[in-house]
Amino acid sequence: MKQLYEKHPLAIRWFHWVNFPLLTLMIWSGLLIYWANDVYRIGWGDTTLLKFFPKSFYQALHVPFRLAEGMALHFFFMWLFAINGVLYVLYTAILGEWRHLLPSRHSLRDAVYVTLYDLGLRKTAPLQGKYNGAQKIAYTLVIIMGVGSLLTGIAIYKPTQFAGLTTALGGYAWARAEHFILTIGYVVFFVIHVAQVVRAGWNNFRSMIAGVGVINGPTPVTRETAKAE
Amino acid sequence: MADSTSSPSTDEAVQRELQRRSRRAFLVGGVAALAGLGGWRWLVTRPAANGTPWPLRGILNANGQLASEYFSNAHLAPVFPRSQAQEPRYNGKVGLGGNFDPAAWRLRVQTDSAGGIRALTLADIQALPRVEMTTELKCIEGWSVVVHWAGARFADFVARYAPAAAEAPYTYLTTPDQQYYVGLDRQSALHPQTLLCYEMNGQPLTLQHGAPLRLVAPVKYGIKYLKRIGSISFPTQRPPDYWAQRGYDWYAGH
User: Fold this and answer.
1) Phi, psi of B238 (to 5 degrees)
2) Per-residue pLDDT of chain B (254 residues; tens, 9 = 90+)
């Protein structure tokens, strides 16, 4: 028989969906800023495999000559982005949701198995709780990346008042590069995240909006319940 | 798990409950998304204050206010070995046009609020204690370069030539043709690393880099390093600033 269960707390859903447009705006305004000194690339010597970013990319998005606008947006939305992130971390820490999210000693192995399973190279997926090992690692890593973005951001925003931080991060130019790399990391995260949500199907997506999950039959066996037996 | 929800007894009842909750959640989510979009439209269509919508300008100014709260003269910009110094690129020529004769140049200083004006020569500035430092010039565009500077502390200059202005809340500098102008808060102007600079990397300034005298302020972005200083005054109201009028942050401080 079908059963409903509470999957995602209301607060978590709000944090998630508020973060989505805020992070998008931070990346967008960051791109407007980055354009003014777009020095990063993947390559060596005179060989460039990938330039960040090609001219056509900027032109398609109407990026050029919007540095001032980008800075004004970035230094406005940084507050909302940071506040939402801090509230999320506090919520998960205080209400115990972190138990579902923090990787355990099994997570790395499980993540490998889950990935193999997702790629069709393994027949069964490992037992899991609310999130599988790969999810736990990804969702924790993205929070650490958020902390990294705040720190590298402060380091390039106030490199004199927080000179110690800037120096610890390798200096001003390095801190800027790290800030950029983390941003590319969010884009990679986003692509994988959306692909996995599409794979997981409608019930899973709906639970992130409505909070409620639906299962067939008795309560499924999870790593937590399996341990209890 | 299921006990936290009222447990409907049949599959159809479960389905109805699921649909009811989904409908409500998607409705709330849709309204929230529209509200967000509306908020964004509202924000970016506000009348501009100096080239940026006024709410953004307000936050830029508030950020500057906050920064000045924890600003300290004890916080120094990192210094580097002189061997790392490089030639900065020539960036920004506003205010450097015209036929300019460095030999005939005088620095016009408004020494007090009564409007007293003093004309100084480069020798007057060089008579102040000479300070050398190797700091990183950070352009608002995002690049940075280590440069070795020599000049006089702005604080020493004020103490010697404009002591009545020592408590003035703002400093305002312009090029001789007044095409380029910069405003500074008092703290940043009097910071020990803020220099009236006459030498760069061991050589007298070139015209491109602001001869005979330019500002160097490692606590600010390069846009505040005004070249070819023509006049200095100490207004009581926040003075205009060339780039701040074009959408950038007035404070622009590190």
Assistant:
1) -60, 120
2) 444 455 557 888 999 999 999 999 999 999 999 999 999 999 999 999 999 999 999 999 999 999 999 899 999 999 999 999 999 999 989 999 989 999 999 999 998 777 789 999 999 999 999 999 999 999 999 999 999 999 999 999 999 999 999 999 999 999 999 999 999 999 999 999 999 999 999 999 999 999 999 999 999 999 999 999 999 999 999 999 999 999 999 999 99
Q: What is the assigned CATH class of domain B48-246?
A: alpha beta
CA atoms A56, A60, A64, A69: torsion sign: negative
What gap in Å lies between CA A81 and CA A68, rounded to an integer?
20
Rounded CA separation B174/B162 (Å): 17
Rounded to whole angstroms, the Cα distance separating A102 from A148 reads 18
Optimal mutation site among A34, A160, A202, A221, interface B, most CBs of chain B within 10 A: A160
Q: How far is CA A41 from the centre of its chain?
A: 22
Give residues 19 to 48 of B whose Cβ lies within 8 Å of A: 21-22, 24-26, 29, 32, 36
Instruction: Write the residue in A33, A206, A211 that is nearest to B142 by C-beta.
Output: A33
The CB-side HSE value for B125 (13 A sphere, CA atoms) comes to: 27
Look at A166 and B78 and tell me if their CB atoms are within 8 Å.
yes
Cα(A90)–Cα(A65) distance, integer angstroms: 39
Q: Do B247 and A2 make contact, defined as CB atoms within 8 angstroms? A: no
Q: From CA B8, how far away is CA A5, in angstroms rounded?
A: 11
Q: Does residue B136 sit at the A interface (CB-CB below 8 Å)?
A: yes
Distances (CA, A) of A88 to A13, A17, A173, A200, B20: 10, 12, 30, 24, 27
Cα angle value B117/B122/B125 (rounded, 5°): 75
Mutating which of A5, A14, A73, A76 best tests the B interface, going by the most B Cβ atoms within 10 A?
A76
Does the model's pTM come out above 0.90?
yes
**Annotated domain spans of chain B:** 2-44, 48-246
CB proximity A40 to B under 8 Å: no
Q: How far apart are the first and last CA of chain A?
A: 23
Rounded CA separation B10/A17 (Å): 32
Q: Where are the domains of chain A?
A: 2-20+82-228
CATH 2.170.130.20 fits A2-20+82-228, yes or no: no
